[in-house]
Amino acid sequence: MKPGEPASAPRRAIIFDLDGTLVDSVPDIHAAAAAFLAERGHAPLDLPTITSFVGNGVPVLLERVLRAVGEAHDPASLAAALPRFNEIYGAAPSALSTVFPGVVEALETLAGAGHALGVCTNKPEGPARQMLADLDLERFITALTGGDSLPQRKPDPAPLHHTAGLLQAELSAVIYVGDSEVDAETAVNAGMPFALFTEGYRKRPISEIPHAVS
């Protein structure tokens, strides 16, 4: 910028959660959990139970699954079980998943208005990228941070800050969109406004989740 020129406005960016915000992904997570449990001699858990386990990343989900069927869920047992679950889920992360109504139109409008769009999710990065590709959403998304992209996962603010950095956006010009308590806490920790998608996987009433807009 030359002396006397007005400062340019910060690049506007919107960062989205993935599961429960852009995509109804629980059917595939449920199918992977059922296949994983079948290999270990257990009956499947029902869909609402698996839905209640979603939001904190695969390690936490698997810990909850193992606890629900009475298996050991200590760190060593979890570490031993995690690669197989990731293998099962990673083989077909989007076979049963669907994009929520209105998402494509919203992304088209936002991109057309000049917003940089990113995804910050606790889903592992590989399956997240595959899901965006399979469901034809990757054309809108220019930055992605997954649950294994950094040492930290949401609600730590680091993944959200990292995604904003990938988008080359100042934090003051970023909005985070998500569907859950974890997403709301992440936005608060990151110092970003939070927009709540109310049709996702939240566990508490809307009134109990801090948000700027819903």
Features:
8 helices, 214 residues, two-stranded antiparallel ribbon, 5-stranded parallel sheet, disordered N terminus, 41% helix, alpha/beta
What can you see in these coordinates?
Helix content is 41%, strand content 11%. It is α/β, with parallel strands linked by helices and 214 residues long. It has helices spanning 26-39, 47-53, 58-68, 75-91, 103-112, 125-134, 158-166, 181-190; strands spanning 13-16, 23-24, 98-99, 116-120, 143-145, 174-178, 194-196.
Sheet having the most strands = 5 strands, parallel
Structural class: alpha/beta
Count of DSSP E strands? 7
Structural Rg: 18 Å
Question: Ends: how far apart?
Answer: 38 Å
Q: Give the strand content.
A: 5-15%
Q: What is the spatial order of strands in the main beta sheet?
A: 5-4-1-6-7
Mean pLDDT: 94
Task: Estimate percent helicity.
Answer: 40-55%
Number of helices: 8
Shape call: globular
Unreliable sequence segments: 1-7
String of helices and strands: EEHHHHEHEHEHEHE
Compose a concise summary of this entry.
This protein has 8 helices and 7 strands, in the order ββααααβαβαβαβαβ. The protein has 214 residues and is α/β, with parallel strands linked by helices.
